[in-house]
Design brief:
eight-stranded parallel β-sheet, elongated, mainly beta, Elongation Factor Tu (Ef-tu), domain 3
Amino acid sequence: MSILPNTYSNVLHVPDVGALLHLPPEKLEDGAVVRVNGYRKESDGGGKWVRYDAASTKPDNGGTVHDPHLEPNNSGRWETIHAGTADFRWFGLFDAGANADDALDAMVHDASVRRIEAHSDLNFVRRHVFDRSHIELDFGGFTVTTEGIELNAKDNPFGAVICFRGTAAGETQSVTLAKDLAELTDVLEVADSSVFAIGDWWIARVNNHEGGVAQRELDYLLKVTEIVGARHIRFNYKLGWHLAAGRVVTYKKMNPVTRSHVRNMRFAGVPVPPTYSTTVKPFEYWDQIGSNPVAYEFAVECDVSDIRAAFVFWPVIMRRYCTHFVTERCELINPEQREWGGTGYLTQQINVLYGHVRDCNTSNARHLNDFTCAGYCMVENCHGDGDDFGPFVTHGQFEHDLVYIGNSGLLSFANSGSTWGDSAKRIMVQRHVASRIVAHKKLTDLTLEDCHAYVKDGLPDSGSIWTNADGLNMRGCTAEAMITLSRSSSRSRRSNVIDSCGFGMVKGGELARPVRPGTELVGFRPFDGDLLVSNSRFHNVEEVRIGSINRLVLSHTWFKGASESTGIVRINSKHIAIQGGGLLNCGFELGGAWDGKDEDGVIAGSKSEQSVTVDGGAIFEGTNGLGAFWKSADPGNVVAWNFGNVTSTAANAKTAHFDIQGGTHKYRANGAHFIGGTFAASDSAFGIGSYMFHTSCIEQNVIRDRMPTESETVRHRSGNIIIS
């Protein structure tokens, strides 16, 4: 009697896979359907429906294909019936006691499987590379271990347990740009558009600058959206940087992995020997031992969610040449290594577009989020503690148009060296808390809003913000220890503005890098541009330097000294304008403005004229370490002074409202109000080419015995209201 295909009223059940395989093959008819109630025993979770395919010769994989024949070279297989969802339990995997590698391979390589589920802990000992699209791996929140995993290739962060990698399609071409490609264009020049088709994916890469082997402004996986002409293609990307005529762009056609997702995993890596050093090398294959869960290369719309990892070596989620992806609700705690480059990351993303990283966290890791050559990406609600290595970084390979919202952890942008270019553009950071914010390389049009740098015990330079003043906009930010501005690029078309901020100032700190003749300043060049600071406060001022800012405008901004004897600001700005706000127990000492540039673009040469304009109801109060609110003592100084609507109140008779000694000065005060203290201005400061015109002012109990002798060009008594 043969076993016929089932009907609804006649369903054959067997208790387990062993019983299924004991059904006599010679009595099976093609299409017979059997319900297997368990893998090893009934109701153990490994149950499934199977169908007998008499013509099948597929190899037995222990889960989706079973061979009932005792002898080889016989056709006929039991094949699992499913609607696209497969299960590790079909392969008899109910814990991490048996390795799950073969089962994973079998399910991923089965084109009919679109979703794979785990319902227990699993162990893997191989590093799998798949080019499979349209599949989801859901590990159900169970733990994946890698006890006994094979060695990785050397220096290979893509040697993850699961790596999805697209493949090259074969076609390549290069073009030397006939014309400049404008920033934000989405039409690129090609050699021959006939080999491109709408919907194709190509890697577009420009040749590198001589300054670094990875200095490339364009290096992404792009989708063709329109054939514009014989030599022009529209891609799904607005160019982040200008490319000059003569640059070479190479195109390589790819078949990317699409919509292959990994979700819901707890991952435990394997132990790795101590850090490699130049004196102690534990193993030749030291960096090949560790494990990490997921990697993608040449991938589109591939998401990762809910991975909780510990003791990993390479990044938890590694991506290169990926676009349109989401990484969310992932975590890394205590990686095996974090001091060696590339190790201990939650996610590293190289040559990526349109990525979104959200709701992730790290503890004692190297980086939570690393972008290298990334564009149009967002990081949101991510938090790193034990953050001395910097949870949020970019390498500086011409990243652009990145947004960070509501995160916490040290920030370091474009800070990995000239190999990559030290460059980034249009980065927006909102509502961020960090022990440090480091953005002093060639970072153009940085926007910081409601960002806060706090002092962390044991971390050098914590509580500080270092920024490149090249289109810098800061609003509502605070730094407990220091803000330092420098200038390493001059690309921006927008003004440098600091608004509604508050900064502590450490002793000897530099609000703006000063000129130091004969000193190497690459990467920390003096800031020679203009800066508007409005509605802000600088407190704890003590021996602070303001370097070579060209025009410094302080609007309703206050400087408060750390004490009555230490509030000193030494300033070399060419133009200083104060509108409202003022100085509390603080004084400004003018040191002359540096003029000219050397062959490297560093400000150098001789000092030039400074100008000081104070108006708008500004207030000076107290005393300070200079003994004056304004002081010029260098005999080489040339200063134009303009005091208007200002109220200057000295705390004692020794404090000068202004102390002008030597040099060449052009002084005008009209409508100012001086209370207490003294005026100090020497005859030598008002020689040929100088003047003093001090009129229409109110002076209350001001000591005038140190004013210069009046003459045709020096007038300071008549026209004032002098109250003694």
